[in-house]
Every structure is written in structure tokens, then in C-alpha cells.
């Protein structure tokens, strides 16, 4: 178990953090290369301006963590569950998030360009200002999330699950005038 770890500018390469609990720790400008977070639990951990290259988050649980302005490249997010926290400004372009579950997460300005999110869950997530061009949210559960950045002409939304209020937001993104009957 890592508790109260503080790292600034450190590089972690090939570390095996499988099934570990990391809590109340802070990482600033750190680089993680091929680190295995498989089945790990991260609680109230802060990653600010960090880079993750080829890391594995298979079945990881991430609760109330700040992952701000961080970059993910060629990472495995299979079965990752994120609850609460703030991922504002982070970049996951082209990421495979098809089995990821995000709930009550601030994701303002997140870069999901070309991300594979079909079947993923983004419940009550703030995706305002997100970069989504070419992302695929086919069949994704988006209920309760802020969808103002979703342009249906640039994002695949076939069979996505949304609420009636969100349908109005999407219509307004298309510059439609929504009026009562």
C-alpha cells in the first residue's frame, strides 16, 4: 500500500502495482512507462501534468482522484471504473474506453479525439468543452452528463442512451430551434 506518497518529476518504469491500494498521494509532472495498475485501487490520488505511456489499468478502481492535464498514450483501460474526481484537461486521444465506467467525474476540456467509447458509461460526467472529433459513443450510457461539446456531425452517437433534456441540448448543438408543441 502506498499512502501519502509525494513525487515531483519522477519516472516510474515497469512498476508492478497490481492489486495495490494507493491513497492520499500526489504525483506532479511524473512519467509512468509500462506501469501495471491492474486491479489496483486508487483513492484520493492526485496526478497533475503526468504522462502515462503503455500503462495497464485493467479492472482498476479510481475513486475521487484528480487526473488533471495528464496524457495517456497506448494504455489499456479495460474494465476501469472511475467514480468522482476531476480529469479536467486530460488527454486520451484514440483510447479504447469501450468497457470503462465513469460516474460523477469532472471531465471539462478532456481530449477524447478519436476515442473508442462504444458501450462505455459516462454517467453524470461534465464533458463540457471536451474535444470529441471522430469519437465513437455508439451504445454508450451518457445519462446525466453535460453534452454541450457533442456535435452529432463529428461524433458517432448511434444507440447512445440519453435523457430527454440531453436530446434538447443536442438539438441546440445543431442550431435547431426547440419549442413546445
From TrEMBL:
This is Pentapeptide repeat-containing protein. It comes from Paractinoplanes durhamensis. The lineage of its organism: Bacteria, Bacillati, Actinomycetota, Actinomycetes, Micromonosporales.
Amino acid at each position: 500500500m502506498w499512502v501519502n506518497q509525494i513525487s515531483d518529476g519522477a519516472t516510474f518504469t515497469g512498476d508492478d502495482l497490481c492489486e495495490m491500494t494507493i491513497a492520499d498521494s500526489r504525483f506532479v509532472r511524473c512519467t509512468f512507462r509500462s506501469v501495471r495498475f491492474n486491479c489496483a485501487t486508487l483513492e484520493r490520488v492526485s496526478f497533475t501534468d503526468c504522462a502515462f505511456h503503455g500503462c495497464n489499468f485493467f479492472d482498476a478502481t479510481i475513486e475521487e482522484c484528480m487526473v488533471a492535464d495528464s496524457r495517456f498514450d497506448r494504455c489499456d483501460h479495460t474494465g476501469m471504473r472511475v467514480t468522482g474526481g476531476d480529469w479536467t484537461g486530460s488527454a486520451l486521444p484514440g483510447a479504447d474506453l469501450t468497457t470503462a465506467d465513469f460516474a460523477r467525474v469532472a471531465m471539462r476540456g478532456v481530449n477524447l479525439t478519436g476515442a473508442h467509447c462504444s458501450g462505455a458509461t459516462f454517467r453524470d460526467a461534465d464533458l463540457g468543452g471536451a474535444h470529441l472529433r471522430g469519437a465513437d459513443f455508439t451504445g454508450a450510457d451518457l445519462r446525466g452528463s453535460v453534452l454541450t461539446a457533442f456535435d452529432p456531425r463529428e461524433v458517432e452517437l448511434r444507440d447512445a442512451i440519453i435523457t430527454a433534456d440531453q436530446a434538447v441540448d443536442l438539438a441546440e448543438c445543431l442550431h435547431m430551434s426547440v419549442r413546445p408543441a
